[in-house]
Amino acid sequence: MRIIGIDPGTAIIGWGVIDDAGGNLATLAYGHITTPAKMPLAERLPIIEEALSKILGEWKPEEASVEELFFYNNQKTVISVAQARGAILLTLSHFHVNIFGYTPLQVKQALTTYGRADKHQVQQMVKSVLKLGEIPKPDDTADALALAVCHSSARKMNRLRS
């Protein structure tokens, strides 16, 4: 199963592709999509769509793990991130990728078994589980890989329940 994890945003969108062969995880590629901070959102969304389309075309994931939005202090920020997430979901659907959403709490629990784990603990687990030489940067990229690992874990749990 090829899984892409995506950490939505407007300025930086993290992504990471892994293969799950019966619980054996292999990292294929990861990176981030950036858009200029001062660019209007309406101009950023096509950039996100085009860059993500190239990634999907190259790596051909079967399933996607996309972070669910959670509480934001700044309502303006949550609205723009929600719009970027919508563009991401639409792009994934055009490529016929099955989409799954996970909250930050679910990701933390899947990787560390502790819902209050800090960002560094999650990043260390990403590095360890995926046997990486270093923690991927920027943080959004590590978060995207964590989402992919979370989905792999959820798939395993669902198979056990069946």
Explain this structure:
- With 162 residues, the chain is α/β, with parallel strands linked by helices.
- 51% of the residues lie in helices and 23% in strands.
- The protein has helices at 41-59, 75-94, 104-112, 119-129, 139-161, and strands spanning 2-7, 12-21, 24-34, 63-67, 98-102.
- A hairpin with a 4-residue loop joins strand 1 and strand 2 (12-21).
- The radius of gyration is 15 Å and the shape is globular.
- The protein starts with a strand and ends with a helix.
Labels describing this entry:
162 residues, alpha/beta, Nucleotidyltransferase, domain 5, 5-stranded mixed sheet
Q: Class in CATH?
A: Alpha Beta
What Rg, in angstroms, do the CA atoms define?
A: 15 Å
CATH architecture descriptor: 2-Layer Sandwich
Sheet of most strands: 5 strands, mixed
Please write the string of helix (H) and strand (E) elements.
EEEHEHEHHH
Topology overview:
Blueprint: E1 2-7, E2 12-21, E3 24-34, H1 41-59, E4 63-67, H2 75-94, E5 98-102, H3 104-112, H4 119-129, H5 139-161
Parallel strand pairs: 1-4, 4-5
Antiparallel strand pairs: 1-2, 2-3
Helix pairs in contact: 1-2, 3-4, 3-5, 4-5
Short synopsis of the structure:
With 162 residues, this protein is of the alpha/beta class.
